[in-house]
Each structure stands twice: as C-alpha cells, then as structure tokens.
Amino acid sequence: MDEKVRLPELTLRAILLGVVLSVVLAGANAYLGLFAGMTVSASIPAAVVSMGLLRLLRKGNILENNIVQTAASAGESLAAGVVFTMPALLLLDYWKSFSFVPVVLIAGFGGLLGVLFTVPLRRAFIVEAKLKFPEGIATAEVLKSGQQGGGLIQIAKAAIAGGLFKIASGGLRLWPGSIEYAWRLKGTIAYFGSNLSPALLSVGYIVGLNIAVLIFIGGLINWLVAIPICASTQDWPVVEGEPVSALVFAGQLWSAKTRYIGVGAMLAGGLWTIFKLRGPLFAGIRAGISAYRKTDGETVKLSRTERDMPMKWVLILIAVSIVPLFMIYQYFVKDISVTIPMALVMLITGFVFSAVAGYMAGLVGSSNNPVSGITIATVLVSALLLVFLMGSENPNGPAAAIIIGSVVCCAAAIAGDNMQDLKTGYIVGATPWKQQLMQIVGTLSAALVLAPVLILLQKAYGFAGHESATENALAAPQANLMASVAREIFSGQLPRKFVLLGIVLGIAVIVLDEYLQRRDSDFRTPVLAVAIGIYLPFELEVPIFIGGLISWLTARKNSHNRNGLLLGCGLITGEALTGILLAVPIVIAGRTDVMAIFEEPLSPLLGFILLAAIAIWLWRTATSFKAERDL
Fold it and tell me: Which of 315, 320, 469, 617 has its CA 20 to 30 A from that of 162?
C-alpha cells in the first residue's frame, strides 16, 4: 500500500474490537496451554473475525483489521507466557491459590517489556534482514485477499461444534475425554493412550505434519522405549501388599524420571538457538540502535510507514516496568543483595531472549518459536545463580527462579508475536507506532483477564501434580516441568542421568537438523518439537499426529486453501472457551460432575465416531476449492 494513502487505522471501533478479541483469545489459549502444553497463533482467525464483524457494520478497512489482529494476537501470546510458568508457583506450594495482583503485574509488565524490547529491532529484523516471518506474511495475504469475503461463518460453525463436543464429553460425560491402557509384560510395560479432543486434532493440523511427527516421535521415545526400559530395570512398586497397575507405574516413571530427558533436550535446544543466532542477533541489535541514532530528533522526516514508537518513550516505559517487577522480586526473595543482581539477570535475559524469539519468529513463525526451551534455560540458570547467592536451604529460592522465568517467558512470547504482526503491518502499509501501541493495549487487556481465568480453572479442574487436582485436572505440562527443575536444583535431587541423556539426544537431533538443512530437505528436525513430545503425556500426542496427517494430505491436494486453518482455529476456540464456561457451574456447585448424566462416562466409541466425523469435516473443508472463495 502507498504510504501516502490515509485510511482510518487506530479507530475507536478497532481498539474496542481488538481488546475484546485479545481477552477472548487469551482465555482460550490459556485453557489450551494448560490442557495440551501447546498454544497456536491467533493472528489469522483474529483477522478473519475482524473482517467479518466490521463488514457487518459496513465499515472497516485493511489497516483497521490489521490493528485488531495485532491486539488480539498479543493476548493469545501472553497466555502462553503465563500458563507455561505461573502455575508452577502453586505446584511449589508457594501459592495456595492464584492472587490477582501479582499475576497481573508479572504478566502485564513482563509482556510490556516484550513489546518494548523489540521496538529498536523492527528495522533490523523486518526491513533490513528481510526474514521470512511465515505467519506474518500469511496474515497479510488473508487481510489483502479477504476484503470482499467471509470466513467468519466458518469459524463460528467450528466453534459451535468444538463447544458442543466439549459439553458432551466434559459436561454431560457421554464419553471419556481420553483413553489409556497399559499392560505388564514380563516385568516391563506396554502402553497406549489417546485423547478424544477436536482441539488437539486442530493443533496438529495447524502446526503441520513435520512438527506433529516430531512430537509423536518424542512421545514414542519416552513411552515406548524409555519407560519400558526403566520399568524392566527396577522392582515393581507395591502398595498395601498389592503391585500397582501398569498404568500407575508408567505415570510414576514418566513423572519422576523419563520426562527429564525432555528437559535435557529442551535445554540443549535453547542454548543451541542462542549460539546459532549470535551473529545475526547482535548485528541486528547494532543495526537497530544505529538506525535510531541516525533518526533521533528527525522523526517528522520519516514516512508514516517507518515511524516507530519514540525511543525516549520506550526507555521511560522500560524503567516504569522494571520498578514493579523489582518490588515483586524483592517481596519473593526478601534480600536486597540478591534482588539487585537477579533483577539485572532478569532484565538482560529478557532482552536477549526477546531478541532471540523475534528472530526465530522470522525464521519458523511464532507458533514454532522455542519459548519453552528459552524459559527452561532461564529457570535452570536462575536457580543455579540463586543457589550460589542464597544457598540451597532458602525456601523462597525455587519460587524466585520461577518469577524470573515468568517475566522472561511473557516477554519472549510477546516479542515473537510482536515481530510477526509488525511484518504483517509492513506488508499492508500500516503505521508501526500504532501497531506497537495496540500490542501494549492487547497485552495489558489480556493480563487483566488471565488472572481470573486461572483462578476459575484451578477451582474447577485443578492442575496435575497439585492438591487441587480433580479427575479432570489440567495437565499443565510446562508448569510442572518448571516447578520440578527449580525445586530439584535447590534440593540437589535433579535426575542428572536423564537430563544428560536428554542433552545427548538433543545434540543428536540438532546434528541431524543441520544435515537436513544443508541438504535443503523439506523435512526438518527442530529439537524443541522432539523435546516437547518427550515430556508431554502420550495421549495428547496421538490426535496431534492425526491432525498433522490431515494437514499433509490436504497440502497435497490443495496447498493454498485457508479454510482448514480457520475451521481448526474455530474448533480450538470453541472447545477452549466452553471448557472455561463449564468451570463456572463446577465452581458454584463445588463438584466436577454437576452436569453429568451418568456417574461414569459411557464407552469411548461414540467419542471416537464423532471425532472421526470432525476429522472428515476438516479434510473436506480444507480440500474444497469452492470454500476457498468464501474467504
């Protein structure tokens, strides 16, 4: 778009719609992250919803729609930073329940830092480096091609279907949400499990076959190799004179030992990412700072499409953000001699990892960004430094490490999304400072709603590994992992053998990925995907793998169809929001079966049949060329 064209951009209707979508998608992604350990980018569905709603009002233009998706996707990204880390404070028994003010301050100011840290990097990463930013480009194409079409109906239908599926399974209990079987075979364990979730099927479709396969392989390594080997090399546990079931034993081995293979692989992946990007990263930082020095005081001479938020305001807001985070950290640590150096660590790692996340978003997209690896590396390093500064006996040490990880995770998650949105804006001719302002608005709006969502989900379902856990407890895999690492570094009980094994495995996967890159192979092996597969419960990975297969089959028939993506996002949003809404009557009644028709769920066969029908619907929609024109 010609930068001289003056279309309404930062309008009241766009701001209000952006805030609403930020809040809705933040809540949905919070549920998805706690349930499945993964989140998905919301830029494209937010853009489609914006186009549909503004078209109903017979108003709106491409720049307004871009502003809306900018705010909405910021809320979705902040949810990942929050749910990956903050439930760990409950799991460590530091908090008994979520407290509104600390959650809002950590999430809000951590996310704000993520926006601010990337402002001086926009020119370097987007204009000069010309990185791909695949999701940013895809969103721009949707915005450009969607000026005359719908897509909102597709999302609405899918959301209703996903919501009804969740009500039938999680509310009425017509069938179980998942199935798991394990058998004792000659002193070892054979296991199989699968979740019956349209949202997980959609996650696999959205991330694609490559990532879905790697996640599945990680699960196979853990549940079909590592756990059986561990079971065969130790005595079978006995409770009250009776051997425990194979399923219980497998869960114990996964929780206490084998998932730490994933920790090691994730650590290797996070450190490798930083090392590999050291050259372009620091070059980008220098280029960005140099560009600001040249234009300092000459902002009026820049074209509209090149005007970023003024640097003096960036620095002022960074200073404003640091003060409450410093006070929170002092509240946790209660030792100023420790708070000062660790606050500096938080600031430095926050900036470096935000830059890494922004650069990685340019390479692989924000959905595939290694935020988990970055966070686990931060928690591990922070915990080791705190042990050195505070000693291993300090009861606040693990929680203090998690707080640093929370801030860095929120900043990194927002930074990657921020860069994707700015790339979209660069393509469609948006004004950068207006997008950066809306990223702040979307971040702070989401921060206000995530605290009550977490409080509601804890009371209704609880989290696996915590005393609040119910039979429908949310897995919260990343938070469990962060809590375990922080706790066991301070206690000296970290299962080093399994962490080292994971590091070795991670290095092997990295070597394979480098080899495939040199061969220009379409199939790659990003180590973080394998690591996620190792530490996720296997039953979550089966529908993700099936969704990836559907995505691959779709791409072979119709590589440009976007309707499958929209339907998948609708299924995720519908199931996630319904999960949150179902929590309300559960909390009011004080029991999880308040809506149940039967005391125990019936056979999973009905769930299998309906999930298969949704898979067929996804396939037919994604391969329909007629549906393509609906965009």
Answer: 469
